[in-house]
Every structure is written in structure tokens, then in C-alpha cells.
TrEMBL record, chains A, B:
<dbReference type="InterPro" id="IPR018300">
    <property type="entry name" value="Aminotrans_IV_CS"/>
</dbReference>
<keyword id="KW-0032">Aminotransferase</keyword>
<dbReference type="GO" id="GO:0005739">
    <property type="term" value="C:mitochondrion"/>
</dbReference>
<dbReference type="GO" id="GO:0009099">
    <property type="term" value="P:L-valine biosynthetic process"/>
</dbReference>
<dbReference type="InterPro" id="IPR005786">
    <property type="entry name" value="B_amino_transII"/>
</dbReference>
<keyword id="KW-0663">Pyridoxal phosphate</keyword>
<dbReference type="InterPro" id="IPR043131">
    <property type="entry name" value="BCAT-like_N"/>
</dbReference>
<dbReference type="InterPro" id="IPR033939">
    <property type="entry name" value="BCAT_family"/>
</dbReference>
<feature type="modified residue" description="N6-(pyridoxal phosphate)lysine">
    <location>
        <position position="246"/>
    </location>
</feature>
<dbReference type="InterPro" id="IPR036038">
    <property type="entry name" value="Aminotransferase-like"/>
</dbReference>
<dbReference type="GO" id="GO:0004084">
    <property type="term" value="F:branched-chain-amino-acid transaminase activity"/>
</dbReference>
<keyword id="KW-0028">Amino-acid biosynthesis</keyword>
<dbReference type="Pfam" id="PF01063">
    <property type="entry name" value="Aminotran_4"/>
</dbReference>
<protein>
    <recommendedName>
        <fullName>Branched-chain-amino-acid aminotransferase</fullName>
        <ecNumber>2.6.1.42</ecNumber>
    </recommendedName>
</protein>
<dbReference type="GO" id="GO:0009098">
    <property type="term" value="P:L-leucine biosynthetic process"/>
</dbReference>
<keyword id="KW-0100">Branched-chain amino acid biosynthesis</keyword>
<dbReference type="InterPro" id="IPR043132">
    <property type="entry name" value="BCAT-like_C"/>
</dbReference>
Length: 415, 415
């Protein structure tokens, strides 16, 4: 059990001082995208951090029937209970509670409903071959959630304390985790501002809660490659914006472009940025491309850098780490760098584009067949009967091996 | 009573077809900011629009005591009742209800809490000298709310039907409107996505509700000029984004920069955009500047154009209309154009900057004394003992005259 309470609850984010506002110089031709806001150490320590020893558990008297795993739809069915931790500016984090899953009663003036004081995480609990419940890199989720919260003036918390509570919650709900490969319990830590006020300011009260939804494999019958619409008429994120934080604010505005792409037969948007048409993200996933270098022929696995407009995905980070560990020795170059849609299209034209895939918690990897761009269909290297490239397939295997505890690894946290 | 039901309920916004995605050409030196998404005619008419004839009213049995108007804090106290209208994808808009003010019961997986499916309006009801309740340009608010809703895949509605319902609601709550000048009833129409799902997609159910909060004058003892911090390290809005819609998503990300500015003694952020440092908005208000032309000496009242990054404020529109009606004949040039912080600072240095003010529903106008920019304090033309320039003062008088019905005008809607 982790009990290393860090003295950092409270509101942690501060803008840089006036003299340090622009760490990067701007040029007229090349918009610089690295001046995103970074969280710093807590400026106002609160008296009470999240304290797992104060947890109270009220079990439901009406347990739900388990669904046939084959019928599960992502995020529709939830487990018996939920974890809640209230925060007030006066008292800090109150005693955590596990209660029966239930509706939240919110004042119609609650600030979450008006000004989007909300952030969340997506993570999964897995059952290993011995029946243990495991989380995958929960420290990364908690670190990101604290950054998201601080960016919108919501309180931060001790990551280890909340991991401890989530572990207890996941174990309590373990009967909802099917023990087949590919199945898991999707966990949704969420924080909302609850203060009743229409004044725009830092919320004086908040609620951190975690709900859980059993989910099946993203591709129940094996990979199914998707096709993307390169999107330039709507822009997901901007330098100085909040595209690198997991805020509700980043999601609703992307739904209509997604619906539009779908109406033209494309499953996801590929978000481009700027007149250079940099490739940023795909739908709600990070984007990876594998191609051969034009001059040297060296294989390169590349993804956009964390310049403030890219969500720092846990799967993205895991793929990069695995690539450096296992692909670099095979001669691959592993790159976090800006790249353009033109570069991808050229590589495709010249037969150098090996494969492309999205990366995220839901699917781990999501292979890409084609990208619609400026009236052409860019072929991403899969043959007609292939649904995944080799790298995506190997990555999925490596990551699942650690998620399900087949390989003992520090990324896997036994609850 | 307005009862002109327009057949446009449903989801109205569609991205332009692929060939029309970029109406403006892009140049390397001058980022073009006019390719914001525009709503179009409804693509999927729903069977039922909002129908005021189906309104049911349940009055409270516990009426609230009226507060001393002098003690009112913006958006903290609410009236006895609220107006609610539910929507489902299957049935369209259900029967409107006026009920006692009460908490909303929301599933913890409701999409508003995760993906910021939320938009709102700010408008006011005034009591005229005959005791009539009046709304100010409610058609503008409803038009904008439909655009906001459509942009995030929430349902649209007949503006006239909702104005009818808001009028009935405001009349029912008229005892909460103090009849002194400067007082009013702040109305907050809000729409949220209510579907219980963690899948990111168009909400299958929604709730439109209106709550009301009695408010006093923004400046109870006369104008008090504010000072601003020109902000470049955080960006409120960008081309292809949603800065021109009244979405919750635009608000939470601005609170920390606002807190930071306040910690340095500045009441609001002045949001700059791009390396050119265009002046866009001030806090949650539109920005106006009055200056003399460098060459001709002609007086110019200017504000940023509606290029997709600027909120189309009702007060902004009213000021522009009044300026064209009353100031242009006095020789003023009235401009909606891009202007830079450098331009403002130069005008100040050369004694050509006459005044600057924010414009919004809360304050009508909010005079600006100084702007902190690149280590200098730009003086906005007020002398030491002045709290407002002449134009701000005249605008406030003209607008209040129409709001309170002193001047009969089409902008004022008698409930």
C-alpha cells in the first residue's frame, strides 16, 4: 500500500512570472508551439490532503447482475459502487467514501455546468492469471490529473493516496473484471468544481470521483484498420491553450467535426495544425507513423513532440519507451518531432510509409489504412487483407504483456 | 407573445463541405482568423420543437425572503423557481416546466461532467417605470445560444418559443427585480448534455434550463476604472476554435491567468493574439478603444472584428449600433478591425488615445485606466480623478435608457 503523502494539495498551477512569459522566440514563418503552461510547485499548501486511512465504505444492498462480456458497450454499464472525495477551500480534502453508484445532486448554478471546471483520466484495471487486480502506470494518470486540475484552478492531491484508494475500489469491484484476455475494468477518475456561483473564479469546492465500467476488447475479432479525415477547418489545440491537459473543454468541440468525418466514411479526424499542416493527434488518440528515411533508408517511428498542444498519453509514453528498448537495437530511429501531412503523403507516394496507428488507453493501438487529405487518399502501407502493421501488432503484445502481468514490470501496479 | 415556431429544432451545425473548408487564404506573415465554423440550416429536423403552450407551472410552497438589494453578490442568490425543458433524440423537446428552484440529479457518467457539453447565455430582465418587466434584445441571446449549442452537437430550438417561456418566467419572478435604476434580474439560460455515457459522441439527451439571480449595479458608487494585464502566455481563442461561441469550455481555462493578473494588481486579462499581438477581448468582455487618427486626427471608436475568435457580444453589437447612430454624425469613424497592442501603446505615447473600455452584459461598460504590457504601463487617457471616459459614460446612458424602457425601442422586449 502506498502511503507517501506529499504536501502538495491545493492549487498548484502558477503562470510564469512576467519576465519569463515567453520561453520560446517566435518567428513569422514557423509558429513556435512550445510555450504551453507548465505546472509548478504548490503555492498554497492546504491543511488536509487526501487521506486513505479515513476511507469509509458503504456497500450496496442491490448488487448488479453481471452482463455477458460479449455485449459490453464502452462506458455504458457501471459497477456497484463509486469512490468520492469532496474538497472545500476551507478544509481541504474530506474523508474519502466508497458508496453505492448513485446520481450526483448538483445545484443548477454549480460552476462545472457553466464554465467547464472539469477534468478526467482514463485508466484500466486488469485481472492477471492469479486473479490479482492490476493497474497500468497509475502514477502517470495521477500526475497528469494534477496538472489538468491545477490548470483550471481545481485542487491537486497526493497521487499515491489516490492510487491507494483507486486500488481498494478496483479490488472491491473485481467481480466485474472478466478474466479473459482483452477484458478490463475501465476506471474514470473525474474532478468537477461544485461551487454554487455564476461568478467566474477559482471554485471554492470540488468533487473528485471515480466510476468504473467493465469493457471488452476494442477489436473483439482482431484489428480493424480505420480511415482518417485530415482536418484543417477545425483546430483541436493551440499554443498557449489547454490541448495538453485532459479537460472536458477539449472534447465537446471535437464531436461535430468527428460526426462530419464519419458522414464521409472516415472513422476519425486527423487533426492538422497551422499552414504547415503539422500532424498532431488522431481523434482522441496520439498518432504514430513508421517510415523509411528518404536518404538513408533507416526506419523511423515518429510521433509529435509534447509542445503544449499534444496530450501526453500514457500509451504514447509506453510505446516510445518500448520502442527505445526493443526497436532501437534493431536499427530503428525513435523520434518525437514535428512532421507534416505533406511528409507523410510523400513517404506514401514513394513507398517509404510502412504503417501508421493511433495510440490510447481504449484500443492501445489503432491501425490506420488511409488518410483523406486535399482530395487524395493517402495509403498508409497496409495491403488489402492486412488490418495492422507489424509495429502496431508487436506494441499491443508488449503492452498487454505488462498490463496483464505476464511480464513482471514496474509499470504494473498490483492492487 | 411570440409564437412563431421555426422548424429548426435538432442539431443544426454542419462543417462546410470538403471543398469549402478554407474560405480565407492563408499567408505566412499574417495569420488569417476568419475561418471559424458557421452554423447552417438544420440538417435533421426533429419532430417536436419547444412548445410554450405545453408549459406546466408548479409554484414553490416556500418562497424566499427578498435580500436587501445593497447586499447582492453577482450570481450567488437565486429566485424561487427555474425553467426546464428536456430534450431527447427520439422525442425532441419535451413539455417545458417551471418548478421550484432545485438541484439537478445527474448520473456521474453524464456527458456534461466529462466532455463539457455545455453552453449558456447571460441576459437581464429590467423593471420599467410602469412596473413592466422587460428583456433587452433577447433575440440576440437566443440566436447565439443556438449557434453555441449546434457547435457542440447539442440540440437547437425555436428562439421565439424560448423567449416566450423566459418572459413568462421573468414575470413570475418579478418581485425579485428591485425597481431602482441599475438593478435587474440576471437570467442564465444554460444547456447541458445529460446522456449517461463515457463514449465521446453527440449527446442523446439534453436539458435546457434557466435560473435567475437578482443583481445590483456593477458600480454601486459610480464607475471605477480597472487596470489590465496584457496576456500573451495563455491564449483564450484561436482560428478554427470555439472562441466565438458561449461554451463552458472557454471559461475555466481563463481563470488561472485571471488569478495571476490579480496577484500582480490587475483586475482583468487583456487577451492578445499572435506574434502581432492583436488586441482581442478583456476578461469576459469585448474591448473598445477610442483614439485619434495619426494622420487626420479623426476620432475612431474601434473594436476587434468577429473573425471567429471574438465573442459576438450583445453589448458590443449595441455599442456599435449606437455609435453609428449617434457618434458617426459627430464625425467619428466606427471601426470593426484588427488592431495591435503596439498601436494602442503608440496612440497613448502620442496623446491620441482618448479612452478604452470593456463591454458586456454585467457592467455594460467597464472603463480602463492602464494596461500592463511588456514592462510598461500604457495610460488609457483618464486623468487621475476620472473613473470613466466620455464615450463609455454616454454609451451606458444610452443603453440603460433602452433597457429600462425610458426610450421605447425595438431592442426592449416587454414580457
Amino acid at each position: 500500500m502506498l502511503r507517501q503523502l506529499l504536501p502538495r494539495a491545493g492549487r498548484a498551477w502558477r503562470a510564469p512570472a512576467a519576465r519569463q512569459l515567453l520561453p520560446c522566440s517566435l518567428s513569422a514563418r514557423q509558429p513556435v508551439r512550445c510555450y504551453s503552461i507548465q505546472p509548478e510547485a504548490a503555492s498554497r499548501a492546504k491543511p488536509l490532503d487526501v487521506d486513505p486511512s479515513r476511507l469509509s465504505i458503504t456497500k450496496t444492498s442491490a448488487t448488479k447482475e453481471l452482463k455477458d462480456p460479449a455485449t459490453l458497450i464502452f462506458g455504458r454499464e457501471f459497477t456497484d459502487h463509486m469512490l468520492t472525495i469532496e474538497w472545500t477551500q476551507q478544509d481541504g480534502w474530506l474523508a474519502p467514501q466508497i458508496t453505492p453508484y448513485q446520481n450526483l445532486s448538483l445545484d443548477p448554478a454549480a460552476c462545472v455546468l457553466h464554465y467547464a471546471f472539469e477534468c478526467f483520466e482514463g485508466m484500466k484495471a486488469y485481472k492477471d492469471k492469479n486473479g490479482n487486480v492490476r493497474l497500468f502506470r497509475p502514477d502517470k494518470n495521477m500526475e497528469r490529473m494534477n496538472k489538468s486540475a491545477a490548470r483550471i484552478a481545481l485542487p491537486t492531491f497526493s497521487p499515491t493516496a489516490v492510487i491507494d484508494l483507486i486500488s481498494q475500489f478496483a479490488k472491491l469491484e473485481s467481480r466485474f473484471i472478466p478474466d479473459q484476455r482483452g477484458y478490463s475494468l475501465y476506471l474514470r477518475p473525474t474532478m468537477i468544481g461544485t461551487q454554487k456561483t455564476l461568478g467566474v473564479g477559482p471554485p471554492g469546492s470540488a468533487l473528485l470521483y471515480v466510476i468504473a465500467s467493465p469493457v471488452g476488447p476494442y477489436y473483439p475479432t482482431g484489428f480493424k484498420a480505420v480511415s482518417l479525415e485530415a482536418t484543417d477547418y477545425a483546430v483541436r489545440a493551440w499554443p498557449g491553450g489547454v490541448g495538453d491537459k485532459k479537460l472536458g473543454a477539449n472534447y465537446a468541440p471535437c464531436v461535430v467535426p468527428q460526426t462530419e468525418a464519419a458522414s464521409r466514411g472516415f472513422q476519425q479526424n486527423l487533426w492538422l495544425f497551422g499552414e504547415q499542416e503539422y500532424v498532431t493527434e488522431v481523434g482522441t488518440m496520439n498518432m504514430f507513423v513508421a517510415m523509411k528515411n528518404k536518404e538513408t533508408g533507416q526506419k523511423e517511428l515518429l510521433t509529435a513532440p509534447l509542445d503544449g498542444t499534444i496530450l501526453p498519453g500514457v500509451t504514447r509514453d509506453s510505446i516510445l519507451a518500448l520502442a527505445r528498448e526493443k526497436l532501437a537495437p534493431e536499427g530503428w530511429m525513435i523520434s518525437e518531432r514535428k512532421y507534416t501531412m505533406k511528409e507523410v503523403a510523400e513517404a506514401a507516394d514513394e513507398g517509404r510509409l510502412m504503417e501508421a496507428f493511433g495510440a490510447g488507453t481504449a484500443a492501445i493501438v489503432s491501425p490506420v489504412r488511409k488518410i483523406s487529405w486535399k482530395g487524395q487518399l493517402v495509403d498508409c502501407g497496409l495491403s488489402e487483407h492486412e488490418e495492422s502493421g507489424e509495429i502496431a501488432l508487436r506494441m499491443k503484445g508488449w503492452i498487454e504483456g505488462r498490463q496483464y502481468g505476464d511480464e513482471e514490470h514496474e509499470w504494473s501496479h498490483v492492487c
